[in-house]
């Protein structure tokens, strides 16, 4: 072709002149992939060797299930049409350029399969580097900024570990025409200054796979076949310092504060209600602040189990107060066979009046004097107080009659001629049948004292099961 420029004297041509002649339409069609023929004459796929350098990685955003990276992607392949070592044997250095050189060449179309968005960093001219070696090896390097999806599993949040991948796939050519592979040496490199604030990088690994596309899967347009795919995955573990200081330790303190009500008397309604409700509201605010940073998933997370458990303990202290306050306001005493949890709680829930062995008077009362106010019982006027104690319950060992005592109180009161009769209940709490009589106030105090130990012990057991689950299950 007379219009096709010759390659003679290529050693004396400038880089631009040599490149222009190599990529002239008479020799080079950038729409066609490089063709490498095997021994038997069949065309082989283009092998594209890939390398990635990650110099920035943003923390995972749990609410959007995504993360952001800044990376340098490098693709290396051989294009036999660009070999110039034979026509320019003295030219040993590669031809280098930027976007303008890349636009003259065929380059593999590789895309990020799990990207949300991606851009070329800086300006397109300066952040794409292309080089052509004398043997036809083409290296295309691109600095990109990409936001990628990471399908996180938050069941053990905030004790979770995540595997987030960056997936590269061939877009236009299936594996019969193009095969992607990682470089044998250092396929993925992390910048030494790379640091994550919320996560710690445990490990990183690469993978090579084949993606099958059919007519029902428009991942590659309307083309069917098997497409080469590369991925590199980072294994990240969440740091616990922030969550311990901002959520777990404050929630433990709030639960412990709710136990202060057990040291307040059962009839102290105002302080106990104020303390319980304020603790509950504060804890709900703390839990909701943590939940706003997470997506609305259908499964239960470890953090939700923690907050539900702590809410149950705070709510339990409120219920305990309502229970003992109700008991405190009862009027009748109850009898229990034994002073233990089983019998006391049974009588507290379904109270039974105390047994009385005698149906005498139970309240102090006064009556008029047996003698008329004008009758003189002795030479000196005096007032008599008659005290009668109720008879103790009948038992084989005791048959004591009521004791009646009188008291001279003529100097204590000026109203003469009256006799006061007072019948007092026996102070003994244990009757002859072995049952113990407890007042409602004693029952309420007994429950409060036991709650001071039961609630902390139950909370410790809950913590043992919880932390065992998150770290060992």
Automatic annotation (TrEMBL):
From the record, give the transmembrane residue ranges.
Answer: 247-266, 305-328, 453-472
- Subcellular locations according to the entry: Cell membrane
**Record-linked Pfam families:** Neur_chan_LBD (PF02931), Neur_chan_memb (PF02932)
Taxonomic superkingdom: Eukaryota
Instruction: Show where the Neurotransmitter-gated ion-channel ligand-binding domain sits.
Output: 16-240
Under the heading Gene3D superfamilies, the entry gives: Neurotransmitter-gated ion-channel ligand-binding domain, Neurotransmitter-gated ion-channel transmembrane domain
- Spell out the reaction equation it catalyses: chloride(in) = chloride(out)
Species name for this entry? Anopheles dirus
Q: Name one GO molecular function term.
A: extracellular ligand-gated monoatomic ion channel activity
UniProt membrane topology term: Multi-pass membrane protein
Q: Residue limits of the Neurotransmitter-gated ion-channel transmembrane domain?
A: 248-467
- PROSITE patterns tied to this protein: NEUROTR_ION_CHANNEL
Output this protein's name: pH-sensitive chloride channel 2
Does Membrane appear among the keywords?
Answer: yes
Entry's Gene Ontology cellular component terms:
plasma membrane
| UniProt KW keywords | Cell membrane, Glycoprotein, Ion channel, Ion transport, Ligand-gated ion channel, Membrane, Signal, Transmembrane, Transmembrane helix, Transport
């Amino acid at each position: 072709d007379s219009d096709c420029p010759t390659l003679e004297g290529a050693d004396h041509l400038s880089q631009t002149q040599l490149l222009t002649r190599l990529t002239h339409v008479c020799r080079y069609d950038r729409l066609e992939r490089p063709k490498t023929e095997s021994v038997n004459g069949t065309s082989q796929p283009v092998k594209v060797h890939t390398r990635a350098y990650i110099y920035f990685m943003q923390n995972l955003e749990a609410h959007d299930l995504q993360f952001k990276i800044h990376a340098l992607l490098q693709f290396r392949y051989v294009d036999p049409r660009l070999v110039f070592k034979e026509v320019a044997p003295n030219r040993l250095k590669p031809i280098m350029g930027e976007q303008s050189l890349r636009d003259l060449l065929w380059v593999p179309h590789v895309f990020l399969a799990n990207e949300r968005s991606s851009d070329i960093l800086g300006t397109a001219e300066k952040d794409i580097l292309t080089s052509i070696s004398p043997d036809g090896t083409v290296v295309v390097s691109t600095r990109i900024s990409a936001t990628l999806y990471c399908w996180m599993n938050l069941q053990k949040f905030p004790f979770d570990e995540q595997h987030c991948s960056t997936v590269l796939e061939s877009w236009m050519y299936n594996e019969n025409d193009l095969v992607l592979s990682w470089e044998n040496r250092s396929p993925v490199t992390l910048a030494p200054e790379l640091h994550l604030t919320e996560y710690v990088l445990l490990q990183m690994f690469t993978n090579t796979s084949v993606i099958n596309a059919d007519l029902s899967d428009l991942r590659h347009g309307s083309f069917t076949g098997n497409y080469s795919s590369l991925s590199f995955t980072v294994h990240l573990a969440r740091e616990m310092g922030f969550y311990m200081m901002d959520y777990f330790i404050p929630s433990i303190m709030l639960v412990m504060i709710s136990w202060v009500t057990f040291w307040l008397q059962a009839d102290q309604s105002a302080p106990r209600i104020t303390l319980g409700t304020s603790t509950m509201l504060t804890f709900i605010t703390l839990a909701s602040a943590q939940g706003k940073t997470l997506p609305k998933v259908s499964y239960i997370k470890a953090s939700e189990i923690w907050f539900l458990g702590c809410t149950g303990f705070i709510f339990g202290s409120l219920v305990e107060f309502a229970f003992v306050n109700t008991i405190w306001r009862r009027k009748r005493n109850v009898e229990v066979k034994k002073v233990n949890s089983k019998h006391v709680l049974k009588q507290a829930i379904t109270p039974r009046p105390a047994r009385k062995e005698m149906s005498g008077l139970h309240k102090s009362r006064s009556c008029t004097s047996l003698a008329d106010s004008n009758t003189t019982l002795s030479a000196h006027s005096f007032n008599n107080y008659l005290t009668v104690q109720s008879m103790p319950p009948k038992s084989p060992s005791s048959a004591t009659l009521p004791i009646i005592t009188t008291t001279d109180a003529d100097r204590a009161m000026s109203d003469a001629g009256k006799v006061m009769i007072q019948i007092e209940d026996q102070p003994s709490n244990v009757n002859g049948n072995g049952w113990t009589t407890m007042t409602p106030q004693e029952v309420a105090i007994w429950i409060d004292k036991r709650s001071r130990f039961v609630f902390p012990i139950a909370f410790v057991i809950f913590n043992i099961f919880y932390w065992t689950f998150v770290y060992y299950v």
